[in-house]
Write a structure and sequence with these properties.
Elements: E1 15-17, E2 39-41, E3 63-65, E4 84-86, E5 94-95, E6 108-110, E7 118-119, H1 121-129, E8 134-136
Parallel strand pairs: 1-2, 2-3, 3-4, 4-6, 5-7, 6-8
Length: 138
Amino acid sequence: MIKAGTFANLLKLHDLNLGHNQIEMIQEDLFQNLPGLQKLDLSNNQLTMIQTRTFHNLPQLFRLKLEGNQINYNAFNNLPKLQILDLRSNQMSAIIPSAFYLLPSLRTIKLEDNPWWAFSSAVSGIIVISGAIFLAVW
Protein backbone atom coordinates (compact mmCIF):
# COMPACT_ATOMS: atom_id res chain seq x y z
CA MET A 1 0.00 0.00 0.00
CA ILE A 2 1.18 3.49 -0.83
CA LYS A 3 0.65 5.93 2.02
CA ALA A 4 -1.50 9.03 1.68
CA GLY A 5 0.60 12.12 1.13
CA THR A 6 3.29 10.32 -0.85
CA PHE A 7 2.60 12.47 -3.91
CA ALA A 8 1.30 15.53 -2.05
CA ASN A 9 1.87 18.90 -3.64
CA LEU A 10 3.61 17.72 -6.80
CA LEU A 11 1.75 20.49 -8.56
CA LYS A 12 3.52 20.09 -11.92
CA LEU A 13 3.23 16.29 -12.13
CA HIS A 14 1.48 15.36 -15.41
CA ASP A 15 2.11 11.63 -15.75
CA LEU A 16 2.22 9.04 -12.95
CA ASN A 17 2.94 5.39 -13.76
CA LEU A 18 2.38 2.95 -10.90
CA GLY A 19 1.82 -0.06 -13.13
CA HIS A 20 3.20 -3.55 -12.30
CA ASN A 21 3.76 -2.85 -8.59
CA GLN A 22 1.48 -5.43 -6.92
CA ILE A 23 -0.54 -2.63 -5.29
CA GLU A 24 -3.55 -4.14 -3.51
CA MET A 25 -5.22 -1.03 -2.13
CA ILE A 26 -5.28 2.69 -2.76
CA GLN A 27 -6.13 5.03 0.06
CA GLU A 28 -8.94 7.38 -0.85
CA ASP A 29 -6.82 10.51 -0.49
CA LEU A 30 -3.61 9.23 -2.13
CA PHE A 31 -3.98 11.47 -5.18
CA GLN A 32 -4.92 14.69 -3.37
CA ASN A 33 -3.17 17.92 -4.40
CA LEU A 34 -2.17 16.77 -7.88
CA PRO A 35 -4.05 19.41 -9.88
CA GLY A 36 -1.99 18.96 -13.05
CA LEU A 37 -2.09 15.16 -13.27
CA GLN A 38 -3.25 14.15 -16.76
CA LYS A 39 -2.27 10.48 -17.06
CA LEU A 40 -2.48 7.87 -14.32
CA ASP A 41 -1.42 4.27 -14.91
CA LEU A 42 -2.39 1.72 -12.25
CA SER A 43 -2.41 -1.23 -14.63
CA ASN A 44 -1.38 -4.76 -13.76
CA ASN A 45 -1.55 -4.45 -10.00
CA GLN A 46 -3.79 -6.37 -7.60
CA LEU A 47 -6.49 -3.79 -7.00
CA THR A 48 -9.91 -5.25 -6.23
CA MET A 49 -11.87 -2.08 -5.52
CA ILE A 50 -11.76 1.61 -6.27
CA GLN A 51 -13.28 3.72 -3.51
CA THR A 52 -15.73 6.41 -4.54
CA ARG A 53 -13.46 9.38 -3.83
CA THR A 54 -10.14 7.88 -4.97
CA PHE A 55 -9.90 10.04 -8.09
CA HIS A 56 -12.10 12.87 -6.81
CA ASN A 57 -9.54 15.69 -6.87
CA LEU A 58 -7.95 15.14 -10.28
CA PRO A 59 -9.57 17.86 -12.42
CA GLN A 60 -7.12 17.50 -15.34
CA LEU A 61 -7.03 13.69 -15.54
CA PHE A 62 -7.29 12.75 -19.21
CA ARG A 63 -6.34 9.05 -19.23
CA LEU A 64 -6.88 6.44 -16.49
CA LYS A 65 -5.39 2.98 -16.99
CA LEU A 66 -6.65 0.22 -14.68
CA GLU A 67 -6.08 -2.75 -16.98
CA GLY A 68 -5.08 -6.10 -15.48
CA ASN A 69 -6.38 -5.73 -11.94
CA GLN A 70 -9.19 -7.52 -10.11
CA ILE A 71 -11.65 -4.62 -10.02
CA ASN A 72 -15.28 -5.71 -9.86
CA TYR A 73 -16.98 -2.43 -9.02
CA ASN A 74 -16.76 0.81 -10.91
CA ALA A 75 -16.56 4.04 -8.92
CA PHE A 76 -15.48 6.68 -11.37
CA ASN A 77 -16.99 10.09 -10.93
CA ASN A 78 -16.15 13.77 -10.91
CA LEU A 79 -13.47 13.47 -13.58
CA PRO A 80 -14.58 16.25 -15.93
CA LYS A 81 -11.71 15.86 -18.43
CA LEU A 82 -11.35 12.07 -18.49
CA GLN A 83 -11.42 10.90 -22.10
CA ILE A 84 -9.88 7.41 -21.93
CA LEU A 85 -10.80 4.78 -19.32
CA ASP A 86 -9.08 1.40 -19.60
CA LEU A 87 -10.75 -1.39 -17.59
CA ARG A 88 -9.58 -4.36 -19.66
CA SER A 89 -8.82 -7.68 -17.94
CA ASN A 90 -10.49 -7.07 -14.60
CA GLN A 91 -13.35 -8.87 -12.84
CA MET A 92 -16.15 -6.58 -13.92
CA SER A 93 -19.35 -8.49 -14.56
CA ALA A 94 -21.91 -5.67 -14.72
CA ILE A 95 -22.15 -1.93 -15.25
CA ILE A 96 -24.56 0.06 -13.13
CA PRO A 97 -26.71 2.69 -14.90
CA SER A 98 -24.99 5.69 -13.33
CA ALA A 99 -21.45 4.40 -13.85
CA PHE A 100 -20.34 6.98 -16.41
CA TYR A 101 -22.83 9.84 -16.01
CA LEU A 102 -20.35 12.15 -14.29
CA LEU A 103 -17.68 11.71 -16.97
CA PRO A 104 -18.80 14.29 -19.56
CA SER A 105 -15.61 14.15 -21.69
CA LEU A 106 -15.35 10.35 -21.88
CA ARG A 107 -14.61 9.17 -25.44
CA THR A 108 -13.05 5.71 -25.07
CA ILE A 109 -13.86 2.89 -22.67
CA LYS A 110 -11.86 -0.30 -22.98
CA LEU A 111 -13.77 -3.18 -21.42
CA GLU A 112 -12.64 -6.36 -23.15
CA ASP A 113 -11.58 -9.50 -21.29
CA ASN A 114 -13.96 -9.15 -18.34
CA PRO A 115 -16.45 -11.84 -17.20
CA TRP A 116 -19.55 -9.90 -18.32
CA TRP A 117 -22.97 -11.20 -17.45
CA ALA A 118 -24.96 -7.98 -17.62
CA PHE A 119 -24.81 -4.68 -19.42
CA SER A 120 -27.41 -2.33 -18.07
CA SER A 121 -28.76 0.77 -19.71
CA ALA A 122 -25.52 2.51 -18.73
CA VAL A 123 -23.83 1.38 -21.92
CA SER A 124 -26.68 2.11 -24.27
CA GLY A 125 -27.11 5.46 -22.55
CA ILE A 126 -23.51 6.33 -23.27
CA ILE A 127 -23.91 5.54 -26.94
CA VAL A 128 -27.02 7.71 -27.17
CA ILE A 129 -25.51 10.59 -25.20
CA SER A 130 -22.18 10.66 -26.99
CA GLY A 131 -21.88 8.88 -30.29
CA ALA A 132 -18.12 9.41 -30.26
CA ILE A 133 -17.54 6.87 -27.50
CA PHE A 134 -15.89 3.64 -28.56
CA LEU A 135 -16.81 0.61 -26.48
CA ALA A 136 -14.26 -2.14 -26.82
CA VAL A 137 -16.27 -5.17 -25.73
CA TRP A 138 -15.59 -8.56 -27.27
